[in-house]
Amino acid sequence: MEINYQQIMKKLIFFFVLMCLFSCNEYIDKPKNLVGKTKMAEIIADLAINDQVIYLYPKTNLESGTRFILKNHEVKTEDFLASYRYYIVKQKMKGIVEDAQKIIIEKDPKSEKKIKGDIDLKDTKLPKLERR
Fold this sequence. Notes:
Layout: H1 5-23, H2 37-56, H3 62-72, H4 77-89, H5 93-107, H6 111-116
């Protein structure tokens, strides 16, 4: 009755690999105050619009616009960031972004061509900003 150490080692290594695979099924825990997918899409749509305002009018303050959007949706910055990370890791952000694009198109139907890439920016007339 001879003990074959190679077979035992192979079985042990296989066992440990399986243990590691099953113990690592969650890369990130679900945030305590997870922002729902619908609300997340609305926030991302508003942030995208805010980003375009900053692009068109460079002297405006991006940070205050972002704070206003989060306050308007009654979401804390930490909750938004934790939810954003969670959706990225869970690979659910693509659907949320597509919903955000639909929201933007509902707000401005002209933006559909730009979102889908069918428009040249040279043909776009920029609105004039009235400062008070």
